[in-house]
Structures are given as structure tokens and as C-alpha cells.
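F.,

This is the one I mentioned.
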């Protein structure tokens, strides 16, 4: 049985020539989104006729100014000057270079970006202005609490600090309010309560800020952070890379490696060599 075109007319014997169609042309766009889905990654087809060679009597072809696709794969390079807006989760297996990142990281973030790590948000009162801040950096996984202490000499630290932070790293800053009090940190009991006293015997009225360093691995307190090390990439880190989520390196990881012995959770493969 001879083949036919979409209108049911036998194709022309002459390659590249038009096939006679119906008497009236239908150049309107028909809705897409139907048919058999292709799950393999095929290359997008590209026509082989220029605009000047395209027959004037034919319908003007459509091109994709906007398109929708379920899965998209780029083998070599995704390039462009436009914005990339993701409403879901972006997973990157390699390095991501971005002088400015706007959004939220999930998990602990140790920045390895070459630029300054910051955030940029709209001004809360002036619609014509924005606010840009840069993140604090330091040679530890710092954590803090702050507040006001009045007519009391005890700062009760958060319960969840117990086992999470190294109590030997706790530091306290006191700012007296209203009058001289000669404030002194009298003791830090069991890493849970900071006791303050006034060298002048005055009533205590102050602001406080308490800092401490988190354990790199709460299940193994011997694991230390290597601040400077020899290497060409984070893979060369001399410590255990499983305890870090590196911005620009481990965007696809959402959990830390360490687990409490009583946790019955299947471990996630966090092999940084893969």
C-alpha cells in the first residue's frame, strides 16, 4: 500500500517539493500536549530550509518561543543571559558558580564559593531600594543565643545545646543597661547555665550574647574542622567530608551523614567521590 501524507494524498516523487493538499489552507495553531510520550532523550529536530528558501504558498511554520517538557537533559552546556527560576528543588551534581545566590539552602552550609556569600532582599519600607548583607564566616560551626537579663543572675542556655555544642567553647558577652554594674561571668555550669554577678553589688540589668561551637560530629567529638588544607578541590579535604554540605559542591545532599545509634533510618549514599 503506497504511503500518504497527513491529508491522505500520495507524496510527490520529487524530493523537497510540496505535496498537494486540500483546496483551503489551515494555518492556525493546533493545541499540543497529546500523543505518545517519548521517555528517551532524543535531540531536538532542526529544519533544513532557510526562510528565503521556504515556499511562499506554504503555511508559515511555528517555532517554540515558549515550551513545556517533563524532563530536560543538557549534555554539555546550559548557557544564556536570562534568569533561571525554579519553584521546586534544584539538584546539581557538579560545581555551581554564582557571584550572588538568592534563596534558601536546606541543611548545613559550608561555603566554597569564590565570591562573598550573601543575600539580597527588598527594602522593607522603601520600594525603590534593596538591602544586601554578607554572611559571617569563621573557623568553626558557630551557634548563638542572645537576650536580656534583668533582676536575675542566671542565663539558662537552650536544652538542645546539650550534646550539640562543645561546652568548652562557650563565650559570653554582657552589655550593662542604664548604670555601671561591673558585670562578671561567675561560672558556666555544665554548659547549661551561665551565672552572672555584679562586682558592685548592683541589680543586674543587661543584654547578653552567648556563642559556642557545634561539634562537627555529635557522635564523635574527636572530629575536627581542618580550616586550611592542601588540595585542588573539596575532595582533597583531609577530614571526613561526610559531615559537611558544601555550597556549590553538594547541592544535591539534604542530610548529614551521622546518625544516632537508636535511629533506624536507612543511610543515604553520600559518597563525594561518586
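My design for it:
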Amino acid at each position: 500500500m503506497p504511503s500518504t501524507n497527513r491529508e491522505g494524498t500520495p507524496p510527490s516523487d520529487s524530493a523537497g517539493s510540496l505535496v498537494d493538499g486540500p483546496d483551503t489552507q489551515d494555518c492556525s495553531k493546533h493545541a499540543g500536549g497529546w500523543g505518545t510520550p517519548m521517555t528517551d532523550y532524543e535531540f531536538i529536530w532542526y529544519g533544513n530550509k532557510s526562510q528565503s528558501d521556504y515556499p511562499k504558498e506554504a503555511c508559515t511554520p511555528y517555532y517554540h518561543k515558549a515550551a513545556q517538557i517533563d524532563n530536560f537533559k543538557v549534555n554539555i552546556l546550559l548557557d544564556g543571559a536570562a534568569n533561571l527560576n525554579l519553584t521546586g528543588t534544584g539538584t546539581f551534581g557538579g560545581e555551581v558558580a554564582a557571584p550572588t545566590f538568592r534563596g534558601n539552602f536546606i541543611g548545613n552550609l559550608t561555603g566554597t564559593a569564590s565570591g562573598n556569600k550573601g543575600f539580597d532582599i527588598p527594602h522593607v519600607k522603601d520600594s525603590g531600594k534593596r538591602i544586601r548583607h554578607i554572611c559571617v564566616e569563621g573557623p568553626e560551626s558557630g551557634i548563638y543565643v542572645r537576650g536580656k537579663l534583668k533582676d536575675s543572675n542566671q542565663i539558662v542556655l537552650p536544652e538542645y545545646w546539650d550534646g550539640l555544642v562543645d561546652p568548652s567553647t562557650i563565650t559570653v558577652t554582657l552589655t550593662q543597661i542604664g548604670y555601671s554594674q561591673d558585670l562578671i561571668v561567675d561560672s558556666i555550669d555544665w554548659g547549661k547555665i551561665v551565672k552572672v554577678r555584679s562586682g558592685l553589688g548592683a541589680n543586674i540589668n543587661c543584654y547578653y550574647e552567648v556563642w559556642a561551637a557545634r561539634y562537627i560530629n555529635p557522635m564523635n567529638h574527636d572530629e575536627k574542622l581542618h580550616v586550611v588544607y592542601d588540595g585542588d578541590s573539596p575532595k582533597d579535604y583531609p577530614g571526613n567530608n561526610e559531615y559537611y554540605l558544601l555550597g556549590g559542591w553538594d547541592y544535591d545532599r539534604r542530610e548529614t551523614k551521622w546518625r544516632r545509634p537508636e535511629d533506624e533510618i536507612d543511610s543515604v549514599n553520600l559518597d563525594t567521590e561518586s
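The mean pLDDT is 76.

Talk soon.
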